[in-house]
Amino acid sequence: MRLAQHMAVASPHVRADCVEAGEFPDLARKYRVMAVPKVVINDRVQFEGALPEREFLRKVLEAVESDGQAPA
Amino acid sequence: MSVMPILTASDQAAVRKEFEKIGGPVKLVVFSQELVAGDLCRQNEQLVREVSELSDKISVEVLNPVIDRERAEAYGVEEVPAIAVEGARDYGIRFFGIPAGYEFTNLIDAIIVASTGEPALTAETRTALEELPEPVHIQVFSTPT
Q1: Separation of CA B28 from chain center
Q2: A71 domain-assigned
Q3: Fewer C-beta within 10 Å: chain A N or C terminus?
Q4: Residue B45: which domain range?
Q5: How far apart are the first and last CA of chain A?
Q6: Does residue B33 belong to any structural domain of this protein?
C-alpha cells in the first residue's frame, strides 16, 4: 500500500484504496484474493506480493496500456 | 462508562515520533454507517480519533454515506467503514476496513505523505505518473496480521 499511496500523492490520476479483505468478503471474492497483499489495478492487472518501485510502476503502465485496444 | 483505548502508550509514543515528520494540515474523513456495520464503524472512528489526538495538524470529519450521500459520492466511497486521507488536496487515498496491524503503519505513512505532498518516489516514477493518459485505480487487499 505504501507505494500506491505515494503514487496517489504524485499524480491526480491515481487513486489508492487499501481494502481489508476480511471485512469486505464480496470484494475479496470478486478479485479472487487468495493471498495478501494482492494488488488490482484498473480491474485489469493483478499481482500478489510486494514489488519494488520500478516493477510496480511497470504494472501501473501495463494497466493503462491494456485499456481499450491492444497495442499494435 | 469509558471506552478502552485501542492504542497502547507505546503505540502512541511511536506514532508521535513518526508525526514529527508531518508538514501541513491533514483531514481524516471517516465514513460510518451504524446500521450497516455499527461495531466496525465505531472502532474505526475511535482509532482515527485516537490517532488525530497525537498531532494538532490532524482534523477529523465523520460522514454517513446515506445522509451525506453527495459528499460520499464525491469521495467515491460507498462502503463502510472507510477513511479518506486528505492533505493540501484530496490525493485519492482511501482505507476500507479498520486499518489495524500492518495497515496501521500504512495509515500513519499516508498521513505523513499527504501532509507534505512529497511522495518518496524516484524522478522516473514521478514523470511516468505525471504523463498518465487516464485514471488509475489501485486496490491493495490486505489483512490485519
Answers
A1: 6
A2: no
A3: C
A4: 9-130
A5: 32
A6: yes
CA dist A4 and B6 (Å) reads 26
Question: Above 0.90 for ipTM, yes or no?
Answer: yes
Q: B141 in a domain, yes or no?
A: no
B136 vs A23, A27, A41: nearest CB: A41
The mean pLDDT value for B12-20 works out to: 98
DSSP strand pairing (B82-86 vs B26-31): antiparallel
- Asked if residue B4 is part of any domain, the answer here is no
Residue A36 located in a structural domain? yes
Question: Is B138–A4 a contact, with Cβ atoms under 8 angstroms apart?
Answer: yes
- Partner residue facing A39 (CB), from B100, B133, B140: B140
**Does a structural domain hold residue A72?**
no
- Label residue A41 by pLDDT band (50, 70, 90): very high
